[in-house]
UniProtKB/TrEMBL annotation:
Residues 30-49 bind DNA. This is TetR family transcriptional regulator. PANTHER family: HTH-TYPE TRANSCRIPTIONAL REGULATOR BETI (PTHR30055:SF234), HTH-TYPE TRANSCRIPTIONAL REGULATOR RUTR (PTHR30055). PROSITE patterns: HTH_TETR_2. Pfam families: TetR_C_16, TetR_N. The keyword Signal does not apply. Residues 7-67 form the HTH tetR-type domain. It comes from the Bacteria. Keywords: DNA-binding, Transcription, Transcription regulation.
Length: 186
């Protein structure tokens, strides 16, 4: 097997693993099930990832460039964040590693820790720094960042993890935009 094929095979395994972990949670997913879906031997998953735990950790690596949402004035923050959120929710569906972490966080302490760390690093702290740089005092910036973070996580959990309908993307974006902006404005 060439290096190029090995990389493609590894990626195919990860794609199927993300989909299965997002749909079924950690406990219900098996190495054999992922291997079958990816069209590979379970031994290959062990070789590439060391087993189910390693596969899960690789499938939940989350990278979200948040800096674009913070480029601009405070009065348009809600609009920028809502556009980014809706694009992610509708653009990545079951393959979203963040969704995998959210769904697994109730059954895996490691997933809950990874999700909390991710949100602190990529949501709460950058949002706090942005609000401070926008002129809010420390206490207001922390409170508003925490409110926005909790709101978005709550909506995400309700609409994605509990598998409710996301609804119309344009309506969802408008509602998120207005609500996030109200939280940012205090």
């Amino acid at each position: 097997m060439s290096v190029r094929n090995a990389a493609a095979t590894r990626q195919r395994i990860l794609d199927h693993a993300r989909r299965q972990f997002a749909r079924h949670g950690y406990a219900a997913v098996t190495v054999k099930g992922v291997a079958d879906a990816a069209g590979v031997s379970p031994n290959l998953i062990t070789r590439y990832f060391g087993g189910k735990e390693g596969l899960f950790l690789a499938a939940t690596q989350v990278e979200i460039p948040v800096s674009d949402s913070f480029d601009g004035d405070l009065p348009a923050l809600g609009s920028r964040l809502a556009a980014s959120i809706v694009q992610r929710w509708f653009g990545t569906s079951g393959d979203d590693p963040l969704l995998v972490l959210q769904r697994a966080s109730g059954e895996r302490r490691e997933a809950a820790e990874a999700l909390a760390t991710f949100l602190d690093t990529n949501s709460l702290e950058p949002l706090y720094r942005y609000l401070r740089a926008s002129g809010l005092d420390d206490s207001d910036a922390r409170d508003r960042a925490a409110a926005i973070d909790a709101f978005v996580l709550g909506v995400s959990t309700r609409r994605r993890v509990l598998r409710s309908e996301l609804g119309d993307p344009a309506d969802l974006q408008a509602w998120l935009s207005a609500t996030i902006q109200r939280l940012a404005d205090g």
